[in-house]
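[step 3/7] inverse_fold.run input=structure_tokens len=689
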């Protein structure tokens, strides 16, 4: 951070600010589960690219167990922190005279306060300013851009900092007039010898050098060790790692994801998507237990169930009884006394078994259960409640359409809205007031936002493991997890399934389901893990992937979400990067919402009240579906910062699986073969029913 005018560069210092009443247990559990899954994916991807990378080069201490090497998130080492107050200290404490380019550095703020910067420098009035470039390394380190370097001492078997020139002098100048860092030089003020901007990362140097000296040790390259000069303003100096989710009152979603709740999860999926499910009846279970002389266990189970139902009816906590019942049933299944319940879709049953290795934020099974709870709590209950916290835009209330009480005006409004929604293939659009969104940030990386950084040298690219770093310890020795809880307006959009099916068929999707199988069921059956970082859909130009249902549905929802974000920003005055998205792919739905902790001024309601038709029409306007980059963008996937992309902090998928082609028609995605057929756009009139 810096003050106005670029003066006073500082770095943040965490300060404990706990939530007075704590956070709900399901919210806390969701956060820790998300961090663990993220760390596991980060580690796996780094090891895939750099198999020999030491564990400490990939994950910071709080993210893994040194003894077992497993990714472990210990809640006692973290604290849920409100980012309402954040401390700061000046950094870097390296200054350059604007007259003669001489450098002065201090070890700490106390050291600077004690010694201070001299008013005179080399015989003239000094003009000091902080050096706004730092050394950064993918290990997670930043250091001031000073001329001193680390070396490995063979005697002590440790690194040490050489703080002088070969002539013994300690004062240097920084020759930083050239526009590129590669031409910058340090110059000794005594012998005028120059040196490049080069500095080793001490922890990496120590580890690689010690490992190299072991029998059979690998000889390391200096490109693994040397830090990079970067501006403190550059993104590469600090990439925060964050996630978000919609808060739900019910803890059911989190509970159903537990490994021991597979049967209950299958039942819930069957209920949500109307998939036939057969489970053993009470008579079958009782008879099976009686046949092996264990009728008493059935009697105990019935007793527990009666107690459970009674407590639930009285609004009391019955989780302990439910756990005991589940353990009893599971033991009968495990011993082969009773056959488990069966879902009529073996593919979904297999998906539930294997989903533990999937990237959590794209897991359609979790997301479809979340969607069902979201619709029940925030859509249906909001529409039926007295406060009208959810309003179908086709049936507006007075705050949304001031003439809602005049029958003729209301009918005209409905016809206009329904016509445009039909053209966009949207089956339902609901405005939600006060949607609770939880966003959290738990750490950061440097140089790269992803687990692998490719350093280019001598016409080759070498993969480097990027370290996931937790925020600095607070005074209580815990690491902060910065959590914000927002309640802002949102738009919920659900696509019309018939049009989506026609669009998929028209584009030659290879794994289309039979007409009697819904797309939601088909998505769950056909989904293959996207991976935390969507590696199969970036930097894979023309790899010849087939047109499969799951990535195409996600790309359609994601692209339409971005198109509506741009339309909403233009019509409401909200900043594009101040609008978030949450996608429910199996349900053909998504929500876009205002982000921010400032009071919600009802921008989305006001936009709809004053510019509803303009907002809707803009979404399908061919002019807004073009890109200022022209054919260059079209030939490279149909998505760039000049058209449909948004800031990566607002995007659910890092601006991947995204293309204007799926809306307006155009070239095939980059991961298909070069001669693949063009995509038929979702908005094209030939898809009208």
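[step 3/7] decode complete -> sequence:
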């Amino acid at each position: 951070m810096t003050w106005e005018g670029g003066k006073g560069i500082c770095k943040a210092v965490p300060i404990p600010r706990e939530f007075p009443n704590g956070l709900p247990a399901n919210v806390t559990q969701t956060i820790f589960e998300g961090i663990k899954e993220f760390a596991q994916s980060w580690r796996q991807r780094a090891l895939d690219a750099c198999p020999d990378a030491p564990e400490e080069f990939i994950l910071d201490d709080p993210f893994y167990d040194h003894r077992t090497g497993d990714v472990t998130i210990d809640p006692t080492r973290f604290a849920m922190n409100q980012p309402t107050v954040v401390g700061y200290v000046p950094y870097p404490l390296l200054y350059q005279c604007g007259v003669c380019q001489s450098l002065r550095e201090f070890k700490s703020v106390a050291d600077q306060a004690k010694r201070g910067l001299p008013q005179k420098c080399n015989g003239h009035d000094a003009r000091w300013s902080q050096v706004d470039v730092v050394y950064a390394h993918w290990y997670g380190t930043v250091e001031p851009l000073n001329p001193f370097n680390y070396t490995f001492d063979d005697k002590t078997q440790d690194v040490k900092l050489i703080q002088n020139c070969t002539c013994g002098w300690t004062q240097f100048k920084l020759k930083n007039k050239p526009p590129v860092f590669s031409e910058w030089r340090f110059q000794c003020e005594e012998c005028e010898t120059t040196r490049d901007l080069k500095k080793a990362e001490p922890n990496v140097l120590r580890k690689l050098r010690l490992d190299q000296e072991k029998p059979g040790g690998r000889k390391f390259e200096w490109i693994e060790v040397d830090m990079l000069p970067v501006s403190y303003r550059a993104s590469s100096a600090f990439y925060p790692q964050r996630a978000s989710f919609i808060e739900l009152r019910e803890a059911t979603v989190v509970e159903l994801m537990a490994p021991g709740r597979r049967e209950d999860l299958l039942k819930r999926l069957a209920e949500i998507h109307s998939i036939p499910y057969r489970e053993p009846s009470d008579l079958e279970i009782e008879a099976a237990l009686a046949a092996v002389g264990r009728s008493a266990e059935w009697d105990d189970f019935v007793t527990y169930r009666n107690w459970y139902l009674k407590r639930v009816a009285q609004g009391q906590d019955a989780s302990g009884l439910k756990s005991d019942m589940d353990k009893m049933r599971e033991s009968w299944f495990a011993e082969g006394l009773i056959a488990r319940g069966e879902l009529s879709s073996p593919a979904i049953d297999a998906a539930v078994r294997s989903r533990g290795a999937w990237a959590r934020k794209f897991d359609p099974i979790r997301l479809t259960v979340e969607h069902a709870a979201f619709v029940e709590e925030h859509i249906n209950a909001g529409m039926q409640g007295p406060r009208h916290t959810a309003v179908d835009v086709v049936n507006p209330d007075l705050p949304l359409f001031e003439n809602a009480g005049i029958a003729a005006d209301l009918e005209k409004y409905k016809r206009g809205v329904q016509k445009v929604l039909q053209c966009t293939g949207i089956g339902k659009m609901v405005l939600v007031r006060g949607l609770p969104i939880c966003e959290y940030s738990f750490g950061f990386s440097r140089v790269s936002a992803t687990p692998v950084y490719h350093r280019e040298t001598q016409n080759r690219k070498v993969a480097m493991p990027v370290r996931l770093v937790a925020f600095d310890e607070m005074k209580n020795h815990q690491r902060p997890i910065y959590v914000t809880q927002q309640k802002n307006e949102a738009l919920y959009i659900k696509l019309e399934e018939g049009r989506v099916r026609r669009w998929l068929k028209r584009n030659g999707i290879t794994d289309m389901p039979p007409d009697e199988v819904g797309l939601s069921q088909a998505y769950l059956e056909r989904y293959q893990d996207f991976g935390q970082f969507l590696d199969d859909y970036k930097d894979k130009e023309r790899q010849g992937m087939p047109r499969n249902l799951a990535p195409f549905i996600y790309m359609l929802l994601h692209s339409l979400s971005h198109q509506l974000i741009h339309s909403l920003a233009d019509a409401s005055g909200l900043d594009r990067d101040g609008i978030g998205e949450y996608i429910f792919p199996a349900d053909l739905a998504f929500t876009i919402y205002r982000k921010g902790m400032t009071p919600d001024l009802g921008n989305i309601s006001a936009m709809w009240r004053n510019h509803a038709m303009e907002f809707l029409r803009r979404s399908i306007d061919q002019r807004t579906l073009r890109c200022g980059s022209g054919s260059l963008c079209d030939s490279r996937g149909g998505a760039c910062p000049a058209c449909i992309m948004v800031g990566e902090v607002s995007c659910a998928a890092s601006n991947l699986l995204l293309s204007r082609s799926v809306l307006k028609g155009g070239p095939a995605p980059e991961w298909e073969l070069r001669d693949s057929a063009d995509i038929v756009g979702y908005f094209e009139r030939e898809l009208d029913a």
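[step 4/7] annotate
The longest strand covers residues 426-445.
The first helix runs from residue 25 to 49.
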